[in-house]
Amino acid sequence: MSDSGRTTTSRRGTQDLSSQLNLKEAERIFHEIYDPALDYISTFFQSLLIPNPPALPLLTMIRLNERILHISQQRGTIPLEGYLQNQKMVLWPLYRKEMDNHIDSLKRLADEAEGKGLAGFMGRGVRDQAVRGVASRYASIFTSVVVLSDEAEEAMIFSR
To answer: Alpha-carbon distance 14 to 20, whole Å?
Structure first.
C-alpha cells in the first residue's frame, strides 16, 4: 500500500512539475508575442495623454480600461493585468486634476458673481447668459459622469 501511495505522490509531483513547466512556457510565449505590442500601445497611450485630455474622455478611457481588465481577469491573462493596472493608476490622477480645474473655475465664476474678483472690481459682473451657459455645461458633465459611474466608485468620483 505504501508503494502505491509513493507512486501516486510521485505521479502528482510529476504532473505538478509538468503543469508548472507548461505555465512557464505559456508565459514565455505570451511575453514573446505581446511585449512588442504592449510597448507600442504604451507609446500610443502616452501620446494620448499629452496634452491632458478633457475630463469626460479621461473617464471614458478609465471605464474602457476597467472593462478590459475585468475581461482579462476572467480569461486568466495574468501578465496583462499589471499593465492594465498601471494604465489605470496613470489615468485616475489626470481625471482628478481635470475635475479639480473645473471646480476651481466654478469657484472663480462664483467669486466674480459676488464682486470679489477682478471683474467685480472693474464693475463688470457675471451676466445671466454666462450663468446659463455654465449651468447647462455643468448639467451635461454631471449627467455624463453619472452615466459612466459605478455605485462602488461614486465616493471616489464625487469626493470633492
So the answer is: 10
- Amino acid at site 31: H
- Residues 36, 65 contacting (CB under 8 angstroms): no
Dist. CA 148–CA 59, nearest whole Å: 7
Q: Which residue has the cell 507512486?
A: 7
**96 within 8 A of 112, measured Cβ to Cβ:** no
The string of DSSP codes covering 1-23 is: -HHHHHHHHHHHHHHHHHHHHHH
- Looking at the whole model, is its pTM more than 0.85? no
Residues 6+ apart with CB under 8 A from 126: 109, 112, 113, 119
Query: End-to-end distance of the chain based on CA atoms, in angstroms?
Result: 69
| Dist CA 60 CA 66 (whole Å) | 10
Q: Look at phi and psi of residue 18 and say left if phi exceeds 0, alpha if psi is from -120 to 50, else beta.
A: alpha
For residue 63, report the phi and psi dihedrals to the nearest 5 degrees.
-65, -40
pLDDT in tens, 79-116: 788 889 999 999 999 999 998 998 898 888 777 776 66
**Residue 99: how many other CB atoms lie within 10 Å:** 19
